[in-house]
Hints:
Blueprint: H1 3-21, E1 25-27, H2 29-38, E2 43-46, H3 52-65, E3 69-71, H4 75-82, E4 89-92, H5 95-107, H6 126-132
Parallel strand pairs: 2-3
Antiparallel strand pairs: 1-4, 2-4
Amino acid sequence: MDRTMETVRDAFWRFLGLAVKAGRVAAGSDALETGIRSGKVCLAILTIDAGPNTRDKIGRLCAHYNVPLLVMGDRSTLGHWTGKKERVAVGVTDPGFGKRLVEIAESQSMKQSTEPSGHAPAEPEAKNLEDKA
């Protein structure tokens, strides 16, 4: 991996870490599920190694509640940047942080928003995040 891609990937994770420090992230699949249902989460992030049941459940919730979903990184990377041991799912509760994270991911083609369940994924568009403000 070249240095530029490494820096860009770090930018995403560092910005997520900043959102965690600001208290704008719900860490863990249970907290994410609760946040989506209550309308507090404006962006969901799952790891690529999340279990199929978790991916299906969160994917369906995101599609139903129109919450953008990013699938990226692994559980140890997500855990590291959220200050936890290992995590497979987090939810961003601040629209500004959510919008910027989507922009960073899209600008570097890091977005991997696919649903193994066959459900149409919620597209991470800025308009979705602005509606939550």
